[in-house]
Each structure stands twice: as structure tokens, then as C-alpha cells.
Amino acid sequence: MSSPALPPEILRAAVAHLAPLLPVLTELGDRFAAGGHELALVGGPVRDAFLARTSGDLDFTTSASPEETEAILADWGDAHWDMGREFGTIGARKGADTVEVTTYRADAYDGTTRKPVVAFGDNLQDDLVRRDFTVNAMALRLPDLDLVDPYGGVIDLAARRLRTPSAPEVSFSDDPLRMMRAARFVAQLGLVPAPEVLTAMTEAAGTLQIVSAERIRDELVKLVLGEDPVAGLRVLVDTGLADQMLPELPALRLEIDEHHRHKDVYEHSLTVLEQAIDLEGVPGPGSDEQDHPVPRPDLVLRLAALLHDIGKPRTRRFEDKGGVSFHHHDVVGAKLAAKRLKALRFDKATTQSVARLVELHLRFHGYGDGQWSDSAVRRYVTDAGPHLQRLHRLTRADCTTRNQRKATRLRRAYDDLEVRIDELLEQEELGKVRPDLDGNEIAEVLGIAPGPVLGEAYRHLLQVRLDEGPLDKQEAARRLRTWWAARD
Questions:
Q1: What is the structure's pLDDT at 2?
Q2: Are residues 257 and 337 located together in one domain of the fold?
Q3: Residue 446 sits in which domain range?
Q4: Can you give the pLDDT at residue 301?
Q5: How many CB atoms lie within 10 A of CB 292?
Q6: 454 pLDDT higher than 90
Q7: Number of neighbouring beta carbons within 10 Å of residue 266
Q8: Predicted pLDDT of residue 385
Q9: Which of the listed residues 17, 47, 266, 379 has the most CB atoms within 10 Å of its CB?
């Protein structure tokens, strides 16, 4: 079924966007047709062509069996593989082009483990109806490039509307992860879920529990790295999906009563995320204009901005005089962030980096009027370690006050701190701060063997280095002996 109402110039524009791919599309289409099989480009590549976006995927669907597909791709490509044979998918590569071809599907999910129960179909329209959203249920028949859009995906794209080819409750029952994918398309593509889609997501939110943490993590990452992650996150929270996979986020919607006023932590966190994104790729004061130490998009910075205040619900205290405090919410939040990211199966490096930034996000404000000693600057840089540039941006983004005088004062204070850091970095190479004596020299001065005591001595000299800056070796040895004598 084609789309007769579609103006031809729209289809021509989409095909023109696919121009670099036309040779491989035509060649594969001809090869499958010669074997008596149908072949169509499907899903994301078609959708992105209508959006004038470049897709990194080349996904095809075919009437050929996996065995027939494999024979054709083996003859066409430089290499081919069949890791997805169980689901009807064969992959191949020719030069710079990588393709995946899947036999028409009519599968369903078993409702418990989320593993597809594979059943191959015999026509393109039935294959398209099982896909997640109408904007992904479009295909281009090859080699003739005829559009097949039985569920109005092009119209929905034009309206920026997100609908499902089948009833949304059926689609989400097939695979609950599609609900998170809806929120991801809000963040990535600026689509708006139709009312019936939002209703189905809200009613089925609890079924997300049967989806693996790894699949949920992957969708969350794509959402957070989207153009407008805040819009996608709002969908997760408003539908109750966040309660299932990131409950710390909706928990930020703390009740605010007339006697204990404090800023809306949920809205503040989303604003901090937006402001952090604005600072991605932006050089700091004194930096070379071409120096963009935090690229766009940066997953660690965005997660840290989103999660930086998740310790507040656990630490909120109402004070006797009507105030509200959140003492140590940075430390509590770091532990909560690490626990949540581990549960979502994030890698160790990402988990540790995000938790460290959450732990450090208040450090700047601990120095009050901004009169930073050299010792304080050294500790700030050393504690931040490889995350200094991210910490700069997180700290700046965390200022959401409407008081322009206060905002200006904080901005200038941080400008001054960055200048101080740059000066000390240049003078002392703070990124490589070490004690003035290495482990072997410490052992020789004290006459001790490697072990816990040597580590204690090393840490003492490191603190001296941070407090006072570089010392010559003779003075460092004298300080070490003094410490050793006092220790005994």
C-alpha cells in the first residue's frame, strides 16, 4: 500500500537525501528481485530521510528466508554474518556499507521474559504493523523506491505526532521497552505522543519491570544524549515510567508548603541539566578558543547534572525557625547515584565519574566569599582529577537563582577561581601533583620497607604538598622526619 496523498515533492526530497546510498539500495534491490524476492528499506533510515537526517543504520526487510538472504549477501558483500539468524536477521558489509536484512516478521513476545517468539511473515504490511511507531512503520520498496506507508507515518512526522500502528496497549504489551522508546523519540526527534499513547504508557508503566536493566540503560542513554532530554525525562516522570527505572528523579518533586519554602528540586534539576548542556563545548576563561574539553554531547556531565541533588529527599530537615536544610546531600547523593547506575548496569568508569561529580558539586560553595587560598585551589583540582572541566560546567549550571545580583556574584567568583586554577596549573602542573619524595625516597629516609606505613608517610607528604606547594627534597625529607618522630 502506497501513500497517494503524499505530495510527490516530499518523496523526491526524501529520496534525494538518500542519494549517497542509492547505489547500494539499487544493487541489493536488483539482486533480491532477480532471486524472486521482495526487499525494502525500512524503519529508521526511511524516517530520517523524511526528516533530512542522516541515519547510521541500513535496515532492510525481505520476503526471502534467512538462508536465501545469506546466499545473496554472501555473493554481494566482502563479509557476512548470521548472529541474528534466530530472529531472521543476516548482516553483511561491502566496503564502507554495513547492512542488516531481516525476513518479514509476525512475531510476538512471551509476556514473561520479553524474548520474541519468532514467526516469519509473508507480506510487508503485516511486518510493518508489528513495529513500534507509525514513523518507523514506513518502507521503501527496492529497487523502485516506492513508499509503503499503510499507517500514516509521513503524516505523523509532519505533525510531530507519535502514534503506534496497532493499538498502543497491544504494542506496549508486546514489548514494554517501547514506552521508553517513546520518551526517547520525544528527546531525539521532538515528537509528541498522542493522548492515547500517553494513556497506555501510564496504565502499563509497571510492566517495564520485566525488561532487562541493560535494555533500559541503553534507551536512557539515547534519551539523555538527545537534543532535548528534559522533554523526554518529563514524559518518563509524568507517565510513571521513571518510578520503575529511575525513581530518584520523581522523588525530587518535594512537597513545598507555605511555611517551609525552598526551590522546586525537580524543576531545578531539569534546569541544571539544560544549562549544563548549553556549556558543552564551551571553552572556559583563559582557554584557547579552539579548546572544547567537554564535547557535545557528554553523557557523564548530563547524568551528573540530572542526579546532582538526588540526595536532598533523604536529607531534608525542617529547621526550628522555618528554614529547610539538606546537610550532606552531596555525599548521600553520590552514594545514591552510584547505586542507581550500578542497578542499571552502567559501566564502572561512568558510574564512578558521575558519583564523583555529584559528591563534588557543592565544593565551590564551601569557600564562602570566594577567597581561595593556594592550598584550597590545589585540593579542588586534585579532588576533581580528570573531571575538572566537567566540574566547572556542573558548578556553573547549578546556579539557577532569579536574583541577578547573586547570579552575577557567583559567576564572577567562579571566573576568578578558574583563572586561579589556570595560573597554578601552569606554575605547578597540578594535574600531576605528587609528594616531593617518591616511595623509594621515603623508604630510604625513614629506613622502612614497603607496606601500610610507607603509604601513610606518602599521604602525609602529599597533604604537605597540597597545603604549601612544591618543596625541595631536603626540606621534604626534614618534614618527613619531623612527622615520623611525632608519630612515634
A1: 47
A2: yes
A3: 439-487
A4: 97
A5: 14
A6: no
A7: 19
A8: 84
A9: 47
